[in-house]
Amino acid sequence: MEQFNNQYVKRSQKDYSLSFKLAVVGEVESGSIGNRAAMRKYGIQGHGTITEWRRKYGNFDLDNRSQSKAMQTPEQKIRELEEKLKRLEHQNRFLENRLVKSEDKASILDKLIDLAEEEYLIQVRKNFSPDQSNISAKKTKKR
Questions:
Q1: pLDDT tens, 56-110?
Q2: Is the pTM of this model over 0.70?
Q3: Reduced 3-state DSSP string for the chain
């Protein structure tokens, strides 16, 4: 890292070499320096630049904002994946229920409009041009 230990130099966006990026990422991930300190030390302008480099070149998991789970045991990985599966299954059931409810709601509203048109002899639905009515007819046939 000695070759990069010169004074503060304001850099442009495009002059970071891959070796420089890897050196900065290595230093940050070793824990000897933080993101902000590395920004000041090496004259890196963007606040998210080092985070982006860590995501691309290092062991940084942006979703969890922590070190990668590469050091987990197989049992820990299995347990984590099972928990994720349970969360996703629960979310899937929830979304399926919402879909059923929204389809039921649309059906009920269509019936309500039909009843209102029959009872009051007024047209609630808008008159569409022939092209549009074909499109809407196709949509109603799919339900």
A1: 888 765 555 555 555 778 888 899 999 999 999 999 999 999 999 999 999 999 9
A2: no
A3: CHHHCCCCCCCCCCCCCHHHHHHHHHHHHHCCCCHHHHHHHHCCCCCCHHHHHHHHHCCEECCCCEECHHHCCHHHHHHHHHHHHHHHHHHHHHHHHHHHHHHHHHHHHHHHHHHHHHHHCCCCCCCCCHHHHHHHHHHHHHC
